[in-house]
Amino acid sequence: MVKKINVGLVGYKFMGKAHSNAYIKAPVFFKSAAVPVMKAICGRDEKGVREAAETYGWQSYETSWQKLVSRKDIDLIDISTPTNFHRDIAVAAAQEGKHILCEKPMALNLNETKEMLKTAENSGVKHMMGFNYRRLPAIVLARNLIKEGRLGKIYHFRAVYFQDWIIDPDFPLVWRLKKEIAGLGALGDMGAHIIDLARFLVGEFDSVMCTTETFIKERPEPAAVTGLTAKKGEGRGEVTVDDAAIFMARFRNGALGAFETTRFAAGHKNYECIEVNGEKGSISFNLERLNELQVFSREDEECTQGFKTILVTESSHPYIKAWWPPGHIIGWEHAMVHQVHDLIDSIARDTMPTPNFVDGAKCQEVLEALSKSAQQNRWINIP
Ligand code: SOE
Fold first, then answer.
1. Does 77 lie in the same domain as 151?
2. Are residues 246 and 369 in the same domain?
């Protein structure tokens, strides 16, 4: 009989919807060692969470995460809430012996991430971070090429992550713009992704130097905060996180890194681009063209040398066999499906998934060093 993993998901908005879709699709397309059962979804607003449960097909709903976490019929807690809830939910879930999937950034600060990691390790549960871009076929292919030595020694890692959804100064003060809820701004939200991809593709950070800016210091208070789409309310409140960050890094293997992330790049909606340059060649990736990987090899004949566009849809490419015939492209949400497949498989096979809380805490360590660097205007070593 196929093993079942009962899931309890906290959060039902953008990430809650993306994760719900992944629990639906994973068992349809992948033969994992177990199947996820959509037991319960949780949110504070009863009407909203009830509708979400019906729409996405969850068997039940809760309005208290404490209740969800203590339910005996739940094996895995999925944390898709704003960042300020991550620590409390993860610690309680681990203490109840539940496995955990946690959205990024892992928590508000490094101390919280350490507590989460320690509790999860002491409880012996499996833990995973939602760094979903690690699970795009083109990114996994890039990593495989780097690991195989196709780029040789790595000299440069370059990444940008641009959005523009708060460029209007009258865009309301949603939770992502408040330090006590989000921890950091563009840096924690999008910077965390490119830091994780740098660790995945190149290796550990050695030191960082960062500068940040909050271009719009005050914004209209939302009457009702509903994720990214708040309605305008009374008065203006202070924006307490960064709008943009630019940073440099040195990696332990000698490579240099250059990063930029902003929510003020007019015209860029979800523009995440990565480039790696090595002694034998380069690779380049753009999230808005996520089925493609650009590869340049210095070993190609000079007369035909140039960046090649690999359409990463062959059955030999990572994850693709489970989907469609070659050329039948996949989208942003597929990485979330891969994430669920890998997580469920790891739980069923009793192995620790990656990236896990160790990676989440390491990312947080870099984020914390970047914040310190921006405040003190100097290079900070990563311990
Ligand atoms: C909003 O900036 C956001 O949804 C991030 O929170 C996600 O992690 C990213 O994948 C897309 O943009």
1. no
2. yes
CA 270 to ligand 1 center in whole angstroms = 8
| CA–CA distance, 155 with 253 (Å, rounded to integer) | 9
Q: Is the CB of 272 under 6 A from ligand 1?
A: no
The helix/strand/coil state of 363 is helix
Helices 46-56/14-29 angle, 10° precision: 20
| Confidence at 343, pLDDT banded by 50, 70, 90 | very high
Nearest to 258, CA basis, from 241, 245, 239, 271 = 245
Given CA atoms 189, 191, 194, 197 in this order, what sign does their dihedral have? Answer: negative
pLDDT of residue 222: 83
Measured in whole angstroms, the distance separating CA 261 from the mean position of its chain's CA atoms is 14
Indicate if ligand 1 lies below 6 Å from the C-beta of 163: yes
Q: According to the model, what pLDDT value does residue 232 have?
A: 55
Mutate to test the pocket of ligand 1, among 17, 83, 270 (most ligand atoms within 8 A of CB): 270
The number of the ligand 1 atom at minimal distance from the alpha carbon of 133 is 10
What pLDDT sits at residue 229? 55
Q: What is the pTM of this model?
A: 0.96
Q: Is the pLDDT of residue 225 over 90?
A: no
347 belongs to a structural domain: no
Q: Quick one: which atom of ligand 1 is closest to the CA of 103?
A: 8
Q: What is the mean pLDDT of the chain?
A: 96
Domain membership of residue 43 as a residue range: 3-133
Are residues 180 and 325 located together in one domain of the fold? yes
Residue 181 has pLDDT above 90, yes or no: yes
- Model confidence over 113-135: pLDDT tens digits? 999 999 999 999 999 999 999 99
In a domain, 356, yes or no: no
How many separate domains does the chain show? Answer: 2
Residue 143 and residue 186 share a domain: yes
Both 111 and 180 in one domain: the answer is no
* pLDDT above 60 (res 230): no
Q: What is the pLDDT of residues 161-177, one digit of tens each?
A: 999 999 999 999 999 99
* Distance from the alpha carbon of residue 190 to the mean position of ligand 1, in angstroms: 6
- Report whether residue 189 contacts ligand 1, using a CB cutoff of 6 Å: yes
Distance 170 CA to ligand 1 centre (A): 21
Ligand 1 contact via 270 beta carbon (within 6 Å): yes
Q: Is 375 in the pocket of ligand 1 (CB under 6 A)?
A: no
Determine if ligand 1 sits within 6 Å of the CB of residue 78.
no
Quickly count: other Cβ atoms within 10 Å of residue 37's Cβ.
Answer: 18
Question: For residue 106, which phi and psi values (nearest 5 degrees)?
Answer: -60, -40
